[in-house]
Amino acid sequence: MSSDPVLDSQSDETLLAAYARGERDAARILSRRLLPRVLGQAHRMLGDRAEAEDVAQEAMLRLWRIAPDWEADRAKVTTWLYRVVANLCTDRLRKSGRAVALEAAPEPEDTGPTVAAGLQDRARHMALRAALADLPDRQAKAVTLRHLEELPNPEVARIMGESVRTVESLVARGKKGLIARLRGRKAELGYDDDG
Amino acid sequence: MTMTDERDEDLFRATVETARRRTAEPDDALLDRVMADADRELAIRAPRAVTPRARRSAAAVLLAALGGWGAVGSMTTATILGIWIGVAQPDGLNALSQAWSGGDTVEVPLTGVETLVGLEGLL
Question: Rounded mean pLDDT of chain A?
Answer without folding.
Answer: 87
